[in-house]
Amino acid sequence: MAKLSLFERRRRRVRTALRARAGGKPRLSVHRTGKHIYAQIIDDKDGRTVAAASTLGSKSSGANVDAAAQVGKDIAAAAVKAGVKTVVFDRGGFLFHGRVKALADAAREGGLEF
Question: What is the pLDDT of residue 100?
């Protein structure tokens, strides 16, 4: 087997810890690229996406903290509309700072608990 990259090792470690602590809660998964940031709430028990938001459809660039905060507000509104109040935050292999932290803080302000 090929060695895993540091990012992939960190991603697997985070996901494994989340599964141990999730207790059946849906997970707020975050993915970021150089141009955009994506967030989705996934119900792993049913294997479906409950809500999703990204900077793809927005006019502003996704490569800044303000756009990430807007995605956090959007995902929180979509989650509350879908009836989800409590989630576990899955940052993937990304460190919790910058755009990922801005998205998480905005989602908390929008009504999600994690």
Answer: 97
